[in-house]
Design a protein that fits this description.
The chain has about 240 residues and is of the alpha/beta class. It folds into 2 domains: about 120 residues, Rossmann fold, CATH 3.40.50.10090; about 110 residues, Rossmann fold. Helices cover about 40% and strands about 25% of the residues. The strands form 2 sheets. The protein has a 6-stranded mixed β-sheet with strand order 3-8-7-4-5-6, sandwiched between helices. The chain is elongated and about 65 Å long.
Amino acid sequence: MVSRRPLLLLTRPKPSSEAFWEALPAESREAVDYLINPLLSIHVTGPLPALEDVSGLIFTSANALDAYAALGGSVLDIPVIAVGAATGQATRAFGFETEIAGGTADHLVRHVLDRGYKGQLVHLRGEIAIGDVAQRLTAAGVATSEVILYGQVLEPFSPTTREALSQDRPILAPVFSPRTALQFGRESDGIGDVSFAAISQSVADVLPKEAASRTRVADTPNRDGMVKLVKEMIAHAVTLERRI
């Protein structure tokens, strides 16, 4: 017999999905089943440039830090500016002195300008990134270059995921990027109903139009906001199932 327990479908790369699962409260994790099916895979490309004359590093994802470490990067005696709390936690754990912006590219640019950085800064990122951080900072007078350390390859749903999506049970899916949201829509065409938790309105806007009534947007565009939203959605799904 197929379980009627809500299923949480996590589609970020495995380390990020596992970290998000562990960030949820215990009562939320105990109330659902979960499945990890990354819709993006990370492929380190490099190379890592010389960074001796750099006055600060910018990270807008923990994936960039993982790639930095895989390419032999070490802790440097320069500040790191992280886009949000989750990325900042990772860079601090690595050993960097880290400043944390407000969770978006706009927040990061404002943070750098407000603190009077003069450059040279380097944004370490993947081949797909949003926000034009380096270009905007350079245009504002803070010389900033960017280095691509990894590629992001779209991946399909596995047969296990397709089977799960066809089941008569609540499916909850957090989505963290427009590219993942688009891929989710392509892969889930004609397969069941899914309730989405979107990290921002820009992510929600690229989900399938028919999912609009089943999509909620986090109050804040960061992991804390998503944890709060998914916790609420799990509680709501559990309450509805108990009424059936």
